[in-house]
Each structure stands twice: as structure tokens, then as C-alpha cells.
Amino acid sequence: MRIAIVSDAGAPQVNGVVNTLHATQQALEQAGHIVLMITPASFRTFACPTYPEIRLAYKPFAKLAAALRNFGPDCIHISTEGPMGLAARRYCIKNKLAFTTAYHTRFPEYLSARRILPKALTYRLLRWFHGPSKVIMVPTIGIKQALEENGFDNVALWGRGVDTAHFKPREPDHACIRRPLFLYVGRVSVEKNIEAFLKLDLPGTKWVIGDGPQREALERRYPDVCFLGGKAHAELAAYYNCADVFVFPSKTDTFGLVLAEAMACGVPVAAYPVEGPIDVVVNGRSGILSDDLRQACLDALELDREEVRALALAYSWETATQQFLQHLHLARRHDAAMGKHQLVRP
What we know:
With 346 residues, the protein is of the alpha/beta class. It has helices at 16-30, 61-71, 83-94, 107-113, 119-130, 141-149, 195-198, 215-221, 236-242, 257-264, 277-280, 293-300, 305-312, 317-337, and strands at 2-6, 34-38, 45-48, 51-57, 75-78, 100-102, 136-138, 155-157, 181-185, 205-209, 226-229, 245-248, 269-271, 287-289.
């Protein structure tokens, strides 16, 4: 199949959405499909409000429409709800084409945490955006249920995977590290709830890998924490392997791909018992889920790293990509039933 994937998240951004799409594209192409990934990289951009390091496409409709016409996709998947996603949605509706969407980010909770928009209003906007989608893909059962409770239809599971050949246990470099080492990897921003981790009275050392709008303020507030900045995805395995516990304080992530990556390296997780972690972590075996995050960190030190690794092997990009393809076929069948087909190249 010829598959077009439209996303507002793309290189050089480093986050779960970008990593998910990159892995999915690789798996699709290895299976013989032809994939066109359309991101802001080839468009005029502007800085995202409150996240200036993220670039959003400026008036992308005309150029995006031309790219889709020239490619002639069998299926169109809209990955995000930003300017690129809005343009692709408009294109599909204008041409009466079926499409699928994904829900990667809990914007209602994020925007509420930053006091930008109330959750009810954001959910209303998201229902409008995803309403015409033939399938809304979500990463966990918990998120599926949450969306359905908020009035979303056609919600289906699209799981996540991890490259277990790259993210695997390795001999860590223990030099100059005061043990135990507690590690956080991700955006340094208010919705990630990082301060819940930083303020914990824990033995040893705390590392934070990632960038974001809170980094400068948190570095000043917590001088004993080592802020290492953003790292390329390929570098992360070495840092995971240095850690004794991976700490995930977020209460608003839909999945938390970093959880599976850390576990694949044999690193136990400490997290809250909320959507995301409860779908990834086997409590008491691959991590500890507790409302007492400090105790979760300490208890996670006692877990068997070999079992943590074994449980992470359940996450496969091949399986996740098969789910993705099944949902694309639903949209294709809808077009066939309506006597329509995707636009072909001139």
C-alpha cells in the first residue's frame, strides 16, 4: 500500500510521537509498503507558543495538498492535531476521503495543568477534530476507555513497541556515580510533573535527561540534581543502563514509550498508578506503582532486573504495526463501500 502519514511532530524533535512514527515507518517499509511522512521539516514554520523549541508549520494546506495529490496514497493517517493535522483533515474532507487519526497526547490534561484551557473545552475541540476519523488510534486500553467516556466513537487500540535489540542490558559505567542512581527521561515541562520526583528525599543521585521550558528554573531550584540536557534517541540505552531505577512522575501520559525502553534495559520503574504506567508496568515485577512515589523508588531497587527485561520483550513494533495496518484497512473498506478511492498521482 501507499501510506501517507501526516504529523506536526518530526525531526529534529525528540519525543515519543516522533520515535513511534519513525519505528512504524521502518516496520511498514520492511513489510513492503511505500510510506510518505509529511512533517513540518519541509514547510515554513513558527515557534509553538510556550514551547519555542517546537516548530509548527505555517499555512501548510496548499503545499500539503500538492504532496498528497502527487503521492496518490491508498490510506491517509493523521497523527497529530496541530496545523499539519488540521490541513490534512481539511484536505480529506474536501475530497471526501476516509482517513484515520491518532491520539498521542492528553491535551485536555496538559492544557489544564498549564491553566490555558479547561479540560471540557479541549475535549470538545478534540471531538470535533477526530469526529470524521474512521478509526481513532490510542496506545492503551485505559486511554480508549477515557476517550469513550468523553464522547469519542470509533476508538481502537494501537499499541507500542520497543527495539529490544538496541534497548538491552549492558555493562554500565559506575565510575563517579553515587548509588543508587534514579533517572528521569523526557520533556522538562510542567505537565510531566517532574518536581514530584526532584523533591523526593532519596539516597544516591538523580539524573534528568531532556529539555523543556521548566529546565532552567528547576536547575536553579534543585542544584544537587544532574540535568544532562536532551540526548539523541540512539544514545539513551547507555543512560538507561547506568540507572538503578527509572522514575516516571507523569500523571498525564498516554503510554510513556520511555517506560518500555527502560524496562528493556532491565531497569525497574517507579511511577504513580495512573493511565500509562498501569498499562505498561507489571506492578511488583517490572516496577512499583504507588501513590507514594518515594517508597516506589526504594521498593523498585529490590526488583529482579532480568525479569524486568523479560517482561519488556512483550512489546514488539511488528505487532504494533500490524494493528496500525488493520485500522488503515478499515478506512480503505469504507472508501470501497462508498464507491470512492484515494486520489491517484497525475
